[in-house]
Amino acid sequence: MIAFRISLLVALSNSLSAAQTEPDANSTYDVLTYVDPLIGSSNGGNVFAGATLPYGMAKAVADTNSGSNQGGFTPDGSQITGFSTMHDSGTGGSPSLGNFAFFPYASCAEDQVDGCVFPKKSRAVSYDNSTVKATPGYFGVTLNSGIVVDMTVAQHTSLFRFKFPASKQSPLILLDLTDLSDSRQDNGSISVNAQTGQMTGGAVFLPSFGSGNYTLYFCADFSGATVKDNGIFSNSRASADVKNLKISRSINGYPLPGGGFIRFAPGTTEVMARMGVSFINSQQACSNAAKEVPNYDFQGLQTTAVTAWRNKISPITVSRTGISDSTLRNFYSGIYRTMVNPQNYTNENPVWKSESYFDSFYCMWDLWRSQLPFLTILDPSSVAQMIASLIDTQKHLGWLPDCRMSLCKGFTQGGSNADNALADAYIKGISTGINWNDGYAAVIKDAEVEPYDWSVEGRGGLDSWKSLGYIPVQDFDYKGFGTMTRSLSRTLEYSYNDFAISQIAAGLNKTNDVQKYQTRSSNWKHLFKANQTSSFANGTNTGYTGFFQPKYLNQTWGSQDPLYCSNIDTNPNSVCSLQNTAGETFESSIWEYSFFVPHDQATLITTLGGPAAFVNRLNFLHDQQITYIGNEPAFLTVFQYHYAGRPALSTQRAHYYIPAYFQPTESGLPGNDDSGAMGSFVAFSMMGLFPNPGQNVYLISAPFFESVSIKSPLTGKTATIRNTGFDPTYKNIFIQNATLNGEPYTKNWIDHSFFTEGKELVLHLGAKESAWGTHVADLPPSLGKYTGFDNAALLSSDQPPELVHKAVPARPGMTLWQEPDFVAGIDMGHMHAMGSALGAV
Ligand SMILES: *[C@@H]1O[C@H](CO)[C@@H](O)[C@H](O)[C@H]1NC(C)=O
Ligand SMILES: *[C@@H]1O[C@H](CO)[C@@H](O)[C@H](O)[C@H]1NC(C)=O
Ligand SMILES: *[C@@H]1O[C@H](CO)[C@@H](O)[C@H](O)[C@H]1NC(C)=O
Ligand SMILES: *[C@@H]1O[C@H](CO)[C@@H](O)[C@H](O)[C@H]1NC(C)=O
Ligand SMILES: *[C@@H]1O[C@H](CO)[C@@H](O)[C@H](O)[C@H]1NC(C)=O
Ligand SMILES: *[C@@H]1O[C@H](CO)[C@@H](O)[C@H](O)[C@H]1NC(C)=O
Ligand SMILES: *[C@@H]1O[C@H](CO)[C@@H](O)[C@H](O)[C@H]1NC(C)=O
Ligand SMILES: *[C@@H]1O[C@H](CO)[C@@H](O)[C@H](O)[C@H]1NC(C)=O
Ligand SMILES: *[C@@H]1O[C@H](CO)[C@@H](O)[C@H](O)[C@H]1NC(C)=O
Ligand SMILES: *[C@@H]1O[C@H](CO)[C@@H](O)[C@H](O)[C@H]1NC(C)=O
């Protein structure tokens, strides 16, 4: 298993030692001490490790030529090809952005410009791992060429500092018109100002997991040294006599290397390079840069970035008593990553004007489950801007995005999951700047109108959905078009989307719609086949009966092995993603999707044989490693024991996965961070509250700290969870009883008012599972009725056995994405499969 791979990394940065040396009281500390941006930067985590503001558009880092360089910098022994300004974080498609890299030379051979190597493929240079420094708002590395490069950022501008070894030569910095994916189209352009060396231009690129294209512009300025000469390069040759270049995409060696260069007076030891970017035009790139970084003050800019991050994260504090730095780093770095993406492109949208415009929702399928709910607690005003932006996007493009990056439509993975995100924000009272009637119209359109191209928006198969109550395998759908797979997981997701809509309808007093969409939210029942069995590949029956199965238009059952595309599916021919040869479940198995009825766990529990059988099956899912915690559908399964009256088992399971599968190391994430989704899973789990997203419900577990405080930025009130009997070795993880604001509290969940009203939850912990939160009256809300609960039988005197990690043999490269004519990749939760293809296992 990926999680047990031993990291071979040498020490990361030295930024983490401050806390140990300060003998300060434990109650006050700098939260940023515990943020390590390098966590998840290798081994398929694809985390952006560089300098950014919260939701910043400029994201500066060293780009590597790793086969898994989606986030730019991947410390896996690959080499550095340049320092670019635009990135996404944690994504699984093709590498995103990475536009307009600088690359420095201390000198060119024989002091001739052609003595420097221009093309990206040939200029890559190694670096020493021990020189890498990454802290919020800052990234630095020393190249083996002796050049020290560090960088910080403003919202749309990067500031790079190049320090050259002392010599009598002329250093050169080139600016490359490429991106990470080499997706540049025709007519990239650059103009170099002979006097100032300012470089302006732009080019058209392709999005990394979507359709269409985007144009990005730049404006580069240099400061701190005397200019010797400048010009452009095309392919492997350069000249100071030419100042303007318009370059083709080329049919060979695509895209043709091209860009600008600038040389400095002999003996120059330091140059500041400022890179402004804009989606509007290069004038705006220049004005952004001039406004945001007027005087090349590196320290001042870095301090501003650090302050911005501290303000965002410091509303959450914990008791550090007995807690290792590694645990704290895991927690705070997870929180940090929730605010790297989405990106604030306000005033940078060339397509329509809007109050606020956010991009890099990459993808809603990942974000709705815990990242956006986490931000709803910690940064509600930003969530309000994001939701307003989603609704605005629907107004202008006709549909809510399911995935969006670089101003383009991204691919839909399952349902119309922006519906869930809107519902979650709505029921938690997010309203500033949002017209909820427009929001409601947007989700209703998802539910009622089929788009022509449902591979990038809305839902397919709506005729069948309305008439049959499920998405048939091999549906007859002539109204809209998309990949005709995933009928089973789409049925389950559409069911939940409709429930989400019913929640907004309830708040807006649309009584008829509440009924209508609640009824449709029960469509999952139509695919449950009570006598379906499941066997392992070796033929041994798993012992479980009753699974979802695909169904044809004529209402007869189709068939898919419930373990197909599970984590233990070792068949190399299994196809599990957006390929048109894939099966009826997306990126996971029927086994795992069997639990995906977030709104009606009561009925699901009855359907699966009652609470004891449900717990048994959930244990089997985890213990047999059928589920894979490195992909988002697994998140809620960790905590679903709550619904069967066994909250203790959820807590136990959270400790089973954290930190074993989520280690605070470069290679420590089990899959793509997916824009911070994994980070939010860690943060919520360690706080001791996990959302059932789209509902006003947080499931209560024992926090990983003696206390956790969260100050609501909206109300200024502080919510606190305190444990008595806390044990930092995590033997006492079982809640014995609880009080909320001093009153006994037996429910195993709380609602959002806990945060906004600053309540206090006190948990008394012990080493044994107790009866707390186990009675039907204690269980979270569910559409159907809880039946068959008998706490005496459920909670026998047997205590839950200790959970032991089992090594599962690495899967032989199950195919997740294979269509060669398809440019983009896919949300690769299953990076272990990808990893083996990359030779990383
Ligand atoms: C740096 O670390 C990576 C692992 O992350 C390793 O592959 C590489 O060999 C290391 N490089 C050096 C020079 O130690
Ligand atoms: C690229 O520039 C050439 C020459 O100016 C022009 O003929 C061509 O139409 C342009 N192509 C695109 C895609 O803009
Ligand atoms: C980019 O997209 C626009 C709008 O769809 C289209 O007109 C244009 O041809 C595309 N450009 C390239 C280079 O693909
Ligand atoms: C303070 O916190 C550290 C962890 O950062 C912990 O090791 C130590 O025990 C705590 N000290 C006190 C007095 O609580
Ligand atoms: C997004 O950017 C706009 C324009 O700079 C700014 O007004 C707004 O506060 C930003 N929003 C967030 C959440 O950072
Ligand atoms: C819905 O009805 C309730 C009760 O009549 C009322 O308090 C509330 O303001 C109404 N909400 C809306 C959005 O109309
Ligand atoms: C399973 O149930 C279906 C009806 O849902 C029935 O048609 C089929 O014969 C049953 N199969 C077995 C093996 O009992
Ligand atoms: C078949 O595989 C399962 C799961 O790996 C295992 O538990 C079981 O013992 C195997 N049975 C046989 C007969 O090998
Ligand atoms: C229903 O459709 C499936 C798929 O086309 C076909 O295999 C099956 O025979 C049909 N069943 C009936 C009863 O028509
Ligand atoms: C709560 O649990 C603690 C620890 O087991 C125990 O000491 C205390 O008496 C309990 N309180 C109530 C009200 O049951």
TrEMBL record:
<dbReference type="GO" id="GO:0005829">
    <property type="term" value="C:cytosol"/>
</dbReference>
<dbReference type="InterPro" id="IPR012939">
    <property type="entry name" value="Glyco_hydro_92"/>
</dbReference>
<keyword id="KW-0732">Signal</keyword>
<dbReference type="Pfam" id="PF17678">
    <property type="entry name" value="Glyco_hydro_92N"/>
</dbReference>
<dbReference type="GO" id="GO:0005634">
    <property type="term" value="C:nucleus"/>
</dbReference>
<dbReference type="InterPro" id="IPR014718">
    <property type="entry name" value="GH-type_carb-bd"/>
</dbReference>
<dbReference type="InterPro" id="IPR041371">
    <property type="entry name" value="GH92_N"/>
</dbReference>
<dbReference type="InterPro" id="IPR005887">
    <property type="entry name" value="GH92_a_mannosidase_put"/>
</dbReference>
<feature type="signal peptide">
    <location>
        <begin position="1"/>
        <end position="18"/>
    </location>
</feature>
<dbReference type="Pfam" id="PF07971">
    <property type="entry name" value="Glyco_hydro_92"/>
</dbReference>
<dbReference type="InterPro" id="IPR050883">
    <property type="entry name" value="PNGase"/>
</dbReference>
<dbReference type="GO" id="GO:0006516">
    <property type="term" value="P:glycoprotein catabolic process"/>
</dbReference>
<protein>
    <recommendedName>
        <fullName>Glycoside hydrolase family 92 protein</fullName>
    </recommendedName>
</protein>
<dbReference type="GO" id="GO:0030246">
    <property type="term" value="F:carbohydrate binding"/>
</dbReference>
<feature type="domain" description="Glycosyl hydrolase family 92">
    <location>
        <begin position="284"/>
        <end position="766"/>
    </location>
</feature>
<dbReference type="InterPro" id="IPR008928">
    <property type="entry name" value="6-hairpin_glycosidase_sf"/>
</dbReference>
<dbReference type="GO" id="GO:0005975">
    <property type="term" value="P:carbohydrate metabolic process"/>
</dbReference>
<feature type="domain" description="Glycosyl hydrolase family 92 N-terminal">
    <location>
        <begin position="34"/>
        <end position="278"/>
    </location>
</feature>
<dbReference type="GO" id="GO:0000224">
    <property type="term" value="F:peptide-N4-(N-acetyl-beta-glucosaminyl)asparagine amidase activity"/>
</dbReference>
